[in-house]
Amino acid sequence: MTTKSASETLERRSGPAAGSQGWSAAAERGDAPLLPSERLWGFKEFTFANSALAIATWAFLIGGAVGLFVGPKEGIAAIVIGNIFGVVLTALATTVMAGRYGVEQFVALRSQFGYNGSRLVYLLAVIVLTMGWLAVLAMMFGRSIDGLTALASGGEASPLGIKVAIASVGAILLTWFIVARGPTSIKVFNMIVAPALVLLMVAMLWLILSRHSFGDLMAMEALDPPFEDRHLNFIIAIEINMAAGFSWWPYIGNLARLTRNERTAFWPNILGIFGAAVLGEIVGLLAAVALGDSDPTIWMTQIAGVAVGVVALGFIAFANITSMANILYTSIVGLRQVGTEGLRRLGWGTILFGFCIIPLILVLAYPQMYDGFFIFLVWTSALNSALAGIGIADYFFLRRQRLDLRALHGPQEHGSYRFIGGFNPIGLVALAIGFLTYVWLFNPQTLDNVAAFRYLTASLPSCVIAGLVHYVLTRLFAHGRHWGDYPRG
Amino acid sequence: MDGNEARWLAEIERRAAIYDAEGDTREGRLVAADYLGMAALMLALTVGFWMWAV
């Protein structure tokens, strides 16, 4: 955002004589860095907030997908190993600088990719990811409603039928309506749904363990292993979970800027995001393998029976709305920072609706996406893992944990992050090389892989190589004030 | 530069100066022990669960 547009934004909201309240409101929306005194979340509050984000229905889906590749014992190990790497590396790349400077994530990204490069990254990483998740979660809502009505009437569920399509469209429109009313309505939904979802997970775990002993569960086999080589299936399961961990990249930086300091910005991710996601995925994995189907809208009715199943499915259906509202809201807040002045002039509800059009098309034209959603998830890691590597290399090793707040928020056209026309070619080349490294090692579409994938995974090499390329090329070629103003010596 | 722009730049300057003044002295900075803790946690969980499962 240019200085002019930022000041215009402020004036539209707070009037020409903006007082400290007006500046604080603008800072809260990402137009300026939040001061330490304006940041309200401590350790406990941030742990609750990101637990609410992580404890969501997608955890069931990811756990179920892991059960296709490996049995429960290897699956639990893959869930823990993949998520700890993904969450720690993503949190290092995004939350530490946000916790230190209170800066909006995509404003901070100008220091890595240039002021137009950060827009391109937003387009690639946030819009594609969020639109895909909105479609998948809407279809999960639709299938839950379809399963629920089938259970209640004694009929057959039809996952690709018209009822699912109508309910999925309804889910997206309901999400649009909730988010258009502002963050308070989302908070109310979170406060109800997150604790209830924890109770539901514990109840499901208890029901599964009451039917099968822990030993029996651990001895079960994968539902549909793609390869005879168990080690390769295990590494793919780890890769899926790393992708899940890296998939937080677009979201957690902007939550962490509301925390009081670096420690509070980083460590709650381990308890909240990692802990909650692991719990949900393990429930999804055990249920899928024990009951023979990875789709939570199917196994939930099998576990709980008709009466409890109807309640559980109804609840799961609306829990999806909470997840959708959270990611839609976060994405649109980021969009305001990277968007053009013309985009910012559009009303909040209009931008939201525009963002929902592609998910609406996906649920109507490509409902098969739901069954291969983990392929979509793993594709996103090809980008997110490289972004994490570049973020760590730039902030920790090249900038030595120092950001120039004046340059990030001041006029961009002649500032430190001009690079070439607002794009940092070094960061973008590093991103492309990281992406290509990933796809060379492991193709998420076909599961084709090279020998090194069996030992290294794909996300970790992509993260390391993108970071290394960014570091070396920046040291060699990024000289001068308009080339990022990197410290020398 | 109009009045709004000047006021906006002054506000950014004020906020940046607050962070400049704090420097490295602010409480809650991540220190070597935090980074060692992250590495140890990742290593322990990876080795522990790998050995348990494989």
From TrEMBL, chain A:
Coarse class of the primary localization is membrane
Q: Which UniProt keywords apply?
A: Membrane, Transmembrane, Transmembrane helix
Q: Where is this region: Disordered?
A: 1-24
Note the superkingdom of the native organism: Bacteria
Membrane topology label: Multi-pass membrane protein
- Record InterPro entries: CodB (IPR030191), Pur-cyt_permease (IPR001248)
Q: Where in the cell is it found?
A: Membrane
The UniProt transmembrane annotation reads 48-70, 76-99, 120-140, 160-179, 191-210, 230-249, 270-291, 303-325, 346-367, 373-398, 419-441, 453-473
Protein family according to the UniProt entry: Belongs to the purine-cytosine permease (2.A.39) family.
Instruction: Specify the protein name.
Output: Cytosine permease
Question: What is the protein's species of origin?
Answer: Albidovulum sediminis
TrEMBL record, chain B:
Query: Please, which domain of life does this record's source organism belong to?
Result: Bacteria
Q: Which UniProt keywords apply?
A: Membrane, Transmembrane, Transmembrane helix
Q: Which residue ranges does UniProt annotate as crossing the membrane?
A: 35-53
> What is the official name of this protein in its record?
Uncharacterized protein
